[in-house]
Amino acid sequence: QGQLVESGGGLVQPGGSLRLSCTISVSGFNPDAEQWFRQAPFKQREWVATIGSGNTTTYRDSVKGRFTISRDNAKNTMYLQMDSLKPEDTAVYYCNVIPPIPWGRGTQVTVSS
Fold first, then answer.
1. Which of 9, 85, 99, 100 is the most buried (most CB within 10 A)?
2. pLDDT digits (tens, 9 = 90+) for 16-30
3. If pLDDT is split at 50, 70 and 90, which confidence band does 89 have?
4. Alpha carbon 47 to chain centroid, angstroms
């Protein structure tokens, strides 16, 4: 199994930036890819971005051009750089791998003036 620890969330004004980090600890396998998800109040968790083999990246349409997913394999850490944040980006952000392991606690991102 493994462990996921998200950090870097906070309160930011619309148009601002945050960088989230996800420390990934897995045993017994090498993930095929890493992902970010988010869950807004009273909504289901939704996929945000994926980074796969060869550092290929995909994003949900609403964050394309504003969010950037990356990884540092030496640090077992994945990142989500979030720019031009909007109030609708407010959510708890989670990371996971493929195949998935138990969820971490997430990190709260609040975009508000």
1. 85
2. 999 999 999 988 888
3. very high
4. 9
> How far apart, in whole angstroms, are the C-alpha atoms of residue 39 and residue 36?
11
Type of residue found at 89: D
pLDDT tens-digit map of 63-84: 999 999 999 989 999 999 999 9
Q: CB count, 10 Å around CB of 81?
A: 14
SS (H, E, C) the chain: CEEEEEECCEEECCCCCEEEEEEEEECCCCCCEEEEEEECCCCCCEEEEEECHHHCEEECHHHCCCEEEEEEHHHCEEEEEECCCCHHHCEEEEEEEECCCCCCCCEEEEECC
How many residues are recorded in the chain? 113
